[in-house]
């Protein structure tokens, strides 16, 4: 499992907006500058996050993006699930796998997938912004 650029940009965008949520709508150009990200690619990710219900877009002068919900209620798993699709280690679809691939999937990958899901479901966006190491990175 590897988190794609889309997933990484999406998480960084949400974390940045959570950190600056008291400032009202934030322009993507500001986020791009602070996070050293491509604004053009960030626009595509912001659109997905808006459609997915994580962001609100505010048009006009002083517009930008802001979190739609409470950072305490936004699970990292839900963000990655939207941006990455189902997060799994197994790459072969059931029914298209050899007997050994099936055994490995059922007895190894399936358990690993469940554990990874539990971890990401139990980490909120707010927890990421409160992490001691996070304050050194922004």
Automatic annotation (TrEMBL):
One GO CC annotation: cytosol
Protein name: Rrf2 family transcriptional regulator
A single MF term (Gene Ontology): DNA-binding transcription factor activity
Leader peptide range in chain numbering: none
Membrane-spanning intervals of the chain: none
